[in-house]
Structures are given as structure tokens and as C-alpha cells.
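Ticket closed. Logging final result for Exo-alpha-(1->6)-L-arabinopyranosidase.
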Amino acid sequence: MSFRTSLVAVAVLTLTLGLTTAPAQAAYEYPFRDPALPLTQRIDDLLGRLTLAEKVSWLHQYQPAVDRLGIGLFKTGTEALHGVAWSTDIDNGGAVVTAEGTVFPQAVGLASTWDPDLIKRVGSAVGDEARGYHASNPRLWGLQLWAPVVNLLRDPRWGRNEEGYSEDPLLTGAISTAYGSGIQGDDPDHLRAAPVLKHFLANNNEVRRDTTSSSLRPRVLNEYDVPAFRTAIAADAATGVMTAYNRINGRPATVTDLNSSVGTWTDRPLFNVSDAGGPNNLTGSQAYYATQAEAAAAMIKAGVESFTVDDANGAPTVSSVNAALSQGLLTPADIDGAVRKILSIRFRLGEFDPDGGPYGKITKAAVNTPAHQKLARQTAAEAAVLLKNANKTLPLKPSKKVAVVGPLAKTLYTDWYSGKLPYRVTPLDGIKERAATVDTEGVDRIALKADGRYLTAGIGAGADLKLSATAAGATEQFDVFDWGQGIVTLRSVANGKYVSRANWSTLVNNQDQPTGWFVQEQFKLEAQADGTTLLRYAGYETAYDWFGPDTYVRAAADGTLSLTTAAGATRFTKETVRSGIDEAVVAAKSADVAVVVVGSMPFINGREDHDRTDTNLAAGQEALVEAVRKANPNTVVVLENSYPTTVDRLQEKVPAILWTTHAGAETGHALADILYGDVNPAGRLTQTWPRGGTTLPDILDYDIIKTGSTYLYGKDTPLYAFGHGLSYTTFGYQGLKAVAKGDGYEVSVRVTNTGSVAGDEVVQLYTHQQTSRVKQPVKQLRGFQRVHLAPGGSKVVRLSLRTADLALWDVTRGRFAVEPSTHDILVGSSSDRIRQRATVRVNGERIPDRDLTRVTRAADFDDYSGVELVDETKVRGDAVGGSAGEWIAFEDVDLGRGVTGLRAGVAATAASSVEVRLDSPTGRVVATVPVIATGGVYQWATATAPVSGAAGKHDLYLVFKGALRLKDLAFTR
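Final structure:
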């Protein structure tokens, strides 16, 4: 009997018996359909009705329908990083379908608002639109949303910088909590949609991202990477995590134990998922398990409930899980535990409520509403950061004629995780609504000629390019956009579309913008010594070495194109039809002020699977700005990208610079609102912008403490500091107080708008611990508040500081501890613009000297050189892996009257040894521990050695004399 039929039967029976004196009680075919029952009872009922086969099938991303219970397909994973983005269509061969809704600023832009209340509203809008799409097609648009990304922006070269929020864990936690809580809604029992945090854990490199290991010593893990994820989970602002591709201390994140970490941060059940393809990597690129059955068992036991793999085909997952069951690697109880967590979210989404729950009535009408468009405009304006404004160049006067120049002046780009723009307000559009304008993109228009014929494109939808025409008309002309490092895109004048290898054979002018996983719209124009030019295809698949050296364009006798080697390439004569710089100079001279819009192309300059190797603004774009500035000193640069960029020369020479992310359809309106003073800019940078020439550490080195990275530990003077951002007004700070209150301190400061226009100030609270057993941050963000003040207005800003917030991870005891110390209380408008200072004396606990007569984990070292953290076993535990000459150190070791022996847990594939030295890596040797070949890196043995001449207090150095692993050690007396 169907649910609907049962209701009809109850209604008929009620009328027949004449029972009309009291309201009818609805009857449900199954208790799990009854919303009046407790959630646990409903889950138990449904779980008991599912067969083991049905439960196993639900461990795949596409959880199939159970028709006999009236349950439809449930799909995990709609992308929603800054608006509903895309999903895959199981009913159409897995085709990717892109949403056409409200696109908000990229994630790093959302965080640049420093405004959690606003971001919660953005999350609410995204949740509504996810519901709207779900209502139109629930099989395509699932309600588990894969967002936000909370990986910390520790390295400005990370390809996915646009997807993250900040290099700071507190700010990242605040923004992710706001976005996630907005998506979920405020109902205590139901979810509007279910946000999932990406990518757990320490996922900041795209190079070899599925095989590299993020080596996280305990302080970095517990003080930096974990808090970014823990905040939203602990606030019940997220419903699970997605595991990352990388390894963490040697163990793939896909099988890193979530039950003992993420699962302990909340009382609510979580529904965790793997990243796409992650399960197969365990037996593939990572070669961590011999069989997929072992991999599946390890994932489920680690707390991963959904396998995102094999597209919509769940059969391999079912097969591997069933194999694990038959081999005794899993039990039915393990499956029940995973499915129970899945159901906890599906029930909260209202799927099994008769009316769909409190959010079940949201329809497609919720998508891209006028209110959401207005919110997008507000958010884009609040996110923009005024980097420089000399001599009050901004805001502009509406009466001034403006030259709008630059490769991003007349376009808006989307990125891999954005939806399709339903409309576009470009920077030029926004400015044209305010002032008389003249415009040019400032790019060269060229034609390429060989053997008396020009490279010719198609019109309309485009066509294969070929060497054809003898004169250079529109079909023979291409606009050249410079994206740096020699990479250009070619836009056909014939139809305004970009040249691409989209058909994997020849070249076609058929793309609206560079896009796709392999971004086949990239080329290089390589000048030759004889004055000719080679046209080189530079699409991303060349990075995979699929085509070897065949990346140069060759024209056959009939004019058709193919790829060949440089030696066989056609040598073109490049004719410049018009100079972009010359046009820009003419435009700039004809106007009162020039606005030059430069920046990045999100599919080219850095994105998923491709880190940046160069932080410079494209040379051609920088030359354009220089030429415009010389032609018109009243030049404003709008820098539109999503990561720190080397713009030292612009900072030196250009009077005003405004930064924005790729901020969606309302970008042009938001920029004009700021440029003309309708909005006073108050966005603040969420990561440090290094000066040109700054040496950055290896992108694979995750130890920000050792490398001195981010604003927390960096001591170089940056171009723009963390928290930097200017305003059209000025603010004064007075009367900083830090008063003990409850379990910490209340920090208060009066902030006054001392200028002539209203504006927002982002008040930032930092602390610095003056003395410590360990290296402390230069300063660390402890709180912030964005406040609005009218001219002359004043407000006392109060920020809470818990004593527990000042704790460090004590490696000697494996827990957080607050040391007794004086802390600087620093309040200002950025990390390098501290306006008021105070101190507080914190009474804590002295961290004791180390007692290495107790078994001590090797990973709990104080210092090291060269070693990395590795996996003790494939299930749990960290160890130290080292090679000859590398070492670890334990500081402040109290050896008392002396120790006589040493035991160490070791693993090695060949015989080696470890030297124990006093006070330096080259200090006196007090022991040499022989290490035998144990049979493998997971085969542990105990190595012993006598110790002589070791007494009193010392720093101890364990120097590796060969390749081995060390998991623990203990001295004996």
C-alpha cells in the first residue's frame, strides 16, 4: 500500500464510522514516515526494513531507490561553493549540468567581507536555491552540498586559492560557520540543505595531490589545520566532511580515522564522503591496499559513509563492500553504523516527512530572485579591498569622463565551481551607468599568415581553423589576451568566441570562454630568430604528457591544421592589425581618469589540479597599466583575481588600486558603487601578499612554524599584510581595556569615525605571547568585528578572549596547555596597523622538563631537520621517517643522575642505526642504537643500546644514520 493510498483509506473509514467529533489522526504505512516520532525511532524503523543488499548499495554516491518502501534515489554532492554550481545527471549519461542562478563572489571574496552575518545570509540564499533546483529535479540536484572549502590558504601559489577563505584558522572558522549555518537554516530538527566541509585535511597542493603527504607535526595539526574544520562542526554548522586526496603523515586522508577526530566534535551524527575517485586511488596511484575490498573496509571503519567513485555506477562499490563482508573485513553491524549516519541526514532533510519538512515547499521560484541579486551586489561590494588610494584619487566624481580599459573591462568570467551567470554587469557596464566613457580592452589584434594565406576562422558557431584567405578580414583576425608566462588566449573577431582544441583534433573558434577540465583554449605565440612566429598549443592535458612533443601547429598543403613538433611547425608571420596599448593610450588621453581592469582568468592562472608557479601579474597587463598611467596620471587599477599577486610596481606608481575576486553577475555594479563612493570600501585581505622577490618555501612543506609562513610566523615585510584594507574615511581608536571576565577577558576599545563620510571599520584583535617554551606566532587573530559608523560616530567594540584560546599544544604531554606568561593585546585595522596596545598577565601551568624515561612518541619532537611524519600502521598512529643525516630533537630533557640504556620502536627495510647526541646534531654521542632490517616499514621491533655519560638537563638529538622509521623511545636507568 502506498502512503497516499493509506491516507485515503483512513479518511474513508473515518467518514464511514461517522467519527467527526475529533480531528482525524493521520495513519502512516511505516513508522519511519511519521514525523511525530523521535528521530532515532524513525531511523531504527527504516534501518530494520532495509535488506543488507540495499544498505550496501547506499554506500555509493548514488543511493538507489527502494521502490518497495516508496523511497527514491538520493544523490550526494551538489557543488555550491559560492552559489549553486553544478551537478551530474544520472539520467543523461552523467553529463555535467550547470546551474543558472545567483553567483556570489568567489569564496576568498566572501571571507574578505569579514562579515559573518552577511555570509550567513549568502548561505541562506544558496540553501534556498539548492532547494529550488531540487524541487525541479531531485535526481539531478541533491541536497547534500559539497561546500564550503575550509582548507587554509597557507601558500599563495595553491591552485585552489579562490576556493578557500583565509590563511587564519579563526577567520576561516567564523566564515565557514556562517556559510554553513545559512545553508542549513535555523530549524533545530531539519536541514534546508546539508553542507559538507572540504577537504579534510591539510590539502594545499595540486601537484601530485593524490600521492604527496602533508607532514603535520602535532603543533601544526592541532593549532592550525584542525581548528579550521572543528569550528563549524562543533557549532553544528556542517553535516560532515569530504576527505582529501592527499596523504596525512603518510596515511591517505580517505582512510584517516574520522571517528576519533571529526566525529568527536559534535553530538550529532555526521555523514562523511570521499572525494571523487578517492576510493580507487587507495589501490591505484597510492597503492596503499592490495585489493578494493581492503580499501572499502578501511574507509568504512575510518568513518567514511559514501564512496564518490565510478561516476553513477555503484556496482564496483557494492562488489568491494560485499567482498569485505565475505572476507570478514566488515560485519553487517559496520554497514548498519554507516547507513544510520546517512539516514540521520536524509531524515533531517525532510525526505521522509509527508510534506517534505519545513523547507519542502521551496520551489524553483527561489532561484535568482531580485532579493538574491541585491544580496549578490552588496556582497561583491563588501568583499572588495581598497589596496591603495593616494591623494584621495577615489571616489571618482560622476562628471569626469572615464576611459575603461583592460582585458577584464568588458567581460565576466566564471570558474570551475561557479554556476552560469544568468546576466552580466561588467565593469564597463557599471561605470557607463555613472559617467561618460570611452573603452578598449587594450589587447593586440593580430593575423597569422603563411605561404600567402591567413589563418581563417568560422562565423556563427565557429568552424575548424585553416590556412585559407589571402586577405585579413574579420575571419582572419584574433584578439590576443595575455595571462602570463607566455600563455595567451585567442578570441576570434569573426564571432567573439575563443579558439580551442575542444574536438581533440584541430582548432575551432567555438568557446564562450576558456573552460573545462583540460582548458584547451591556451596557446603560446613563440617568436623565432628569423622574425616568424610558432603557434603552440598549451592546453592543460599537455601536463599529463599525453601528446609528447606534438604541441605545435602545422598547416598542411590544403590548409588544414594538426599538431607536430617544433621542427615541423608552420612558421607564421604575425601581423598586428591594431595595438592594444596604442588604443589604450589614446583612450586614456581623451578622458579625465582611466580605470584599468586587469587580473586573472580563473581556468588558466590557477585552479584545481594546477598550482601557480608564478605570482606575477601578466607582463602584458602590467605593460598596459604602465602605458595608461604615463598617458593619464589619474589612473585607477581594478585588480580582479583570487589570490595574492606580485604588483609591487603598480603599488609604487599607480595612485589607486582596488582588488576584487571574480564576483559574479553583479561585479560591475559593485565596483561602480565603490568607485563612485556609494559604498565605502571595507573589505580586508584574508591572507598575506608577499613582496616580489620573496622566497617562498616548498609548496609541499606544511610546517608553517618551521618555515615562518603566513602572517602568524612570517617576519618579512609584506606588500600587503593580512587584514589590510583602506577606507574613504579615517578611524580613531581610544581607551583599550582588557578586563578579566569569566573564563577569560573582555577586550574593549572605542572606535570613532574621524572622517567626513560614513564607513565600516573591521576592528581586529591580535595577541602575542611574550615568553614561551616554544616558538610563538608573531601575532595571532583572536577576534574581529565589522562596525558601521557615521561621520563623528563612535562605538565601544567589545571582543571576548578566553584564556583557553591562548593555549598551545604541549607535545610533552599531548594536550593543550596555557603557559604562565604576559600577552600583548593588540587592536588595530590590520595585522601591521596596530592602533592600541595593552598587556595581560596569564597564570597558567609551567610545561615540565621532559622525562624520557617514560615511553615518548617520536612524533612529539621539539625540532627536526629533514625528517617527515609517516604512518605507524595503516589504521592509526604517527611515526618519524628519516634518512641519513636527518634528525629530531627533544628539548629540556631531564636525565637526572643519569640513564644507562635506551629502547626504541623501529622499523626498517635495511640495517641502520640512530645516534643519540647531546645539545646539538653534532654534539657528543652518548649512544648508538643499531637497527636491524625488520621486514617492512610496518614491521616494528624494539632496538636497544647502552647509554653512557648522559645526566643532567640537555637537549637530545637523535641523528639517523640511514633510512628507518622511529615510533617511540624510552630511556632506562
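The first strand starts at residue 62 and ends at 63. No further action required.
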